[in-house]
Amino acid sequence: MIEKNFQDIQKRIAGRAQLIAVSKNQSSEKIEEALKTGHRLFGENRVQEAKSHWQELRKTYPDLKLHLIGPLQTNKARDAVALFDVIETIDRENLVDEIAKESKKQNRHPDCFIQVNTGDEAQKAGVSLENFAGLLAYALEKGLKIKGLMCIPPVAADPAPHFALLKNLAAKNNLPELSMGMSGDFEIAIEEGATFVRVGTALFGER
Ligand SMILES: *Cc1c(COP(=O)(O)O)cnc(C)c1O
């Protein structure tokens, strides 16, 4: 079933964006099934869980690519830098500091995206639009490899304007990558310019 889901979703993406298979809260059996299809790009939203899912499998699958798509606490920066190829959730200066410090220590320099709180939601992670320019400048100055932007539109909102806003922001700042779109709205995100879509439920089933 998972193989068929991957085929269906890839067909709908039609080569227009890269598929991040979100494996959070999934069993190791389902993850193995996904790997059997040849898929190698996965997303996790918690560092501890990502370690338990992927630390060993990394040795078996050296071509694996892992994206962190959930909020990152500064005390997990060390593990995040060690495990992930892309950290999508940069949203504040003290996190930039920790990642810069750990990157240097470990001589590992993951690509980073800035998460933008496009809906200005109090409970949601991501930098506000107001503080975006300052954070980007700060992260670049600290040597982070900022390659793109990520957003999660408000649940009840039409996502298209949020995706369009993120695309404009990326274009203005010469950032090539855009991580946006989930199971329910990835096709809209692709139309708005997503280069990565993050799909969980539509691939693995309900969590
Ligand atoms: C869980 C999660 C997804 C995947 O959501 P689905 O609706 O299951 O596709 C995408 N992005 C983030 C940040 C997530 O936490």
Overall description:
The protein has 207 residues and is of the alpha/beta class. Helix content is 43%, strand content 17%. The protein contains ten helices and eight strands. It has helices at 2-13, 28-36, 47-54, 57-60, 77-83, 93-106, 129-141, 160-172, 186-191, 201-204, and strands spanning 18-22, 41-44, 65-68, 86-90, 111-115, 145-150, 177-179, 196-199. Strands 7-6-5-4-3-2-1-8 form an eight-stranded parallel beta sheet. Helix 8 links the parallel strand 6 and strand 7 (177-179). The longest helix has 14 residues, at 93-106. The mean pLDDT is 97. Residues 22, 24, 45, 69-70, 152, 182-184, 198-202 line the site of pyridoxal-5'-phosphate. The site of pyridoxal-5'-phosphate has 14 residues, from strand 8 and helix 10.
Write the layout of secondary structure elements.
Layout: H1 2-13, E1 18-22, H2 28-36, E2 41-44, H3 47-54, H4 57-60, E3 65-68, H5 77-83, E4 86-90, H6 93-106, E5 111-115, H7 129-141, E6 145-150, H8 160-172, E7 177-179, H9 186-191, E8 196-199, H10 201-204
Parallel strand pairs: 1-2, 1-8, 2-3, 3-4, 4-5, 5-6, 6-7
The protein binds pyridoxal-5'-phosphate.
Q: How would you summarize this macromolecular structure in one to three sentences?
A:
This protein is an alpha/beta fold and 207 residues long.
- Beta percentage is 15-25%
The share of residues in helices is 40-55%
Please give the largest β-sheet: 8 strands, parallel
Give the number of DSSP strands. Answer: 8
Estimated structural class: alpha/beta
The molecules bound to the chains, other than polymers, are: pyridoxal-5'-phosphate
> Gyration radius, to the nearest Å?
16 Å
